[in-house]
Amino acid sequence: MILFLAKYPETQEDLKDGMIQRIMHMDNFFSSKKRMYLDVSYSLKKKKKKRIINEDLEVTECGFFHFYTIFKIFLKADFVFIHSVFNVLPVFFFILFFNKKYCIDLHGVVPEETLMLNGDKAKLKFKLFNLCERLLFRKASYAICVTNAMRQHYTKKFPNSEVNFLIYSIMPNNILGDESVVLNATDEDSIVNVVYSGNTQAWQNIDLMCSSIKKNLYDSYKFYILTGNPAEMKSTFKEKGLYPHPKIEILSLSPNELKTYYIKAHYGFILRDDVVVNKVACPTKMIEYLNYGIVPVVLSPSVGDFNEMGYEHIKLTDFNKENKPVKSLKNIEIIKELKARNYKVDIRSILNG
User: Fold this and answer.
1) What are the Cα distances from residue 100, in Å, to 76, 85, 95, 132, 140?
2) 91, 78 in Cβ contact below 8 A?
3) Complete domains list, the chain, with CATH
4) Region 213-232: what's the mean pLDDT?
5) Quick one: which of 324, 338, 229 has its CA closest to 283?
6) For residue 181, what pLDDT is reported?
7) pTM to 2 decimal places
8) Are strands 57-63 and 49-54 parallel, antiparallel or unpaired?
9) CB atoms inside a 10 Å sphere around CB 68
10) What pLDDT, on the 0 to 100 scale, is given for residue 158?
11) Residue 280 · residue 108 · CB < 8 Å
């Protein structure tokens, strides 16, 4: 039985989240195997819930204090697949105790991300997540990284680890494969369509995006803000004097609905700071933007492997009325390269490692 340490996605709302999309993508590789998902909460009030999804899939949710339940689940597992270091801390001692086959899908650099988002308040969490990483790089047989930059980060951080690295980029299920549809799709040649896909977290630099939009509310520009939190986004834009506005639409869409806007978009905001968290990342929205020939508007070009691959982008400081309504064939080709790289990786082989 394969034990996945992760939340099992069961609603359409879940599927809007990039991490959940990654979980489902990995699950597809093992859909013919007996699987159990274990989602352990830190809450003392969390009640245990167990659901049978089908004959091969069972889901258990519980609190970290349900020791006997967690122990029994680990005892039955032949292989433990861990989605993100975030899911390690509440079961740390079980991983320490059980000598199973382990694989960690890293998703991101959790200790550094925690410190970046919460500053000095997160020093204890930073140390705890670092401890979790050290345990995993001692116990795991495989580590799956979303970029080569992430692999290099962990190779430097844990030089004595014997873990086998696999590089497998996040590929959302909703991305379109026919670039001719993208390149031939036009709205009006004179209209520059700009998208933002995401929410209002601090690392998204929404204030900077709003300042840029405010400077570029020309007749030739149209902005589409695609978010899972429309109420919060509208409130933020309203505070900035940008909502309601005829040149700005704020929408909440399912993953499959995004392509309508991606196909006609020419530019897309992805304003990540020049820090290690972003240097090793493979943001879902970056994959989506490039797949649809969108030119990212960036603060720093150093995001994941994309700069090394030569992606076409523009700096936020260069985003102005001079920008033309064009698509990028180069960016489409980069996603083809990443798909080809993924195709060469045999994820199922980790069960035999």
Assistant:
1) 10, 17, 8, 16, 9
2) no
3) 2-168 (3.40.50.2000), 179-336 (3.40.50.2000)
4) 95
5) 338
6) 62
7) 0.90
8) antiparallel
9) 8
10) 97
11) yes
Neighbours of 245 (CB within 10 A): 15
Residue 337: what are its φ and ψ, rounded to 5°?
-65, -45
Say how many residues make up the chain. Answer: 353
Which of 78, 73, 5 is CA-nearest to residue 41?
5
Within 10 angstroms of residue 329's Cβ, the number of other Cβ atoms is: 13
- Beta carbons of 206 and 238 less than 8 angstroms apart: no
Residue 265 DSSP symbol: -
pLDDT, position 178:
62
User: What is the distance, to the nearest Å, from the Cα of residue 149 to the centroid of all Cα atoms in its chain?
Assistant: 15
300 with 274: CB under 8 angstroms? yes
Three-state SS letters, 239-261 = HCCCCCECCEEEECCCHHHHHHH
Residue 124 phi/psi, 5-degree rounding, is -65, -45
Instruction: List the structure tokens of 199.
Output: 């929410």
Can you tell me the distance from the alpha carbon of 246 to that of 262, in angstroms, rounded to the nearest whole number?
19
Question: CA angle, corner 321, sides to 245 and 192, nearest 5?
Answer: 65
Taking only the tens place, the pLDDT of each residue in 5-51 is 999 987 666 666 778 888 988 999 999 999 999 999 988 888 999 99
For residue 2, what are the β-bridge partners?
A: 35, 79
How far, in Å, are 6, 14, 83 from residue 21 at the CA level?
A: 12, 8, 12
pLDDT reported for residue 177 = 65
Q: What angle do CA 7, 11, 16 make, to 5 degrees?
A: 85
Quote the tokens at residue 350. Answer: 């980790």
Give the chain's end-to-end CA distance (angstroms, integer). 15
Phi-psi region of 40 (alpha: psi -120 to 50; beta: other; left: phi over 0): beta
pLDDT over 80 (residue 119): no
Q: Which of 85, 95, 38, 45 is nearest to 65 (CA)?
A: 45
Secondary structure letter of residue 9 according to DSSP: P
